[in-house]
Amino acid sequence: MENTYKLGKKMKNKDVFVEKLRSSGLRPTKQRIQISELLFDRKNTFHFSIDHLNNLLKKKTKIKVSLATIYNTVHAFKKKGYLKEILINREKSYFDTNTSDHHHFLNVKTNELIDLKNEDVEKIKIKKNLPGKKIKSIEVIVKVENSN
Question: Which residue ranges make up each domain of the chain?
Fold first, then answer.
């Protein structure tokens, strides 16, 4: 009975992944379903770079997935609102499965991005206005390193 439950749950999840892909304008290939599983079949928020995701796919799947497929799938999910991009600098960006406005710690030695809850940050006051612009969100990245 337990195997039937797991199989049923896996089939339900696959339907969710297929729908996410289709609603993002992508054909649900085996490779893209594998990417979707890795991104969304988890309990906790997942922070990743394209390279990190590529390495995880190589380790966890038997299907070969091109870097272009990974890049295009991730950016289609971002455009649809399933992922959020966090720009660290011109050369480095991360993606986050938690698309709500929230803050992060960035470990500068390990490049690990960790959620920082809004209640752990006091209200931030911005004193400057830009003509013709309004603030959409405020998200803080706190860079940390080991204190040795």
Answer: 2-93, 100-144
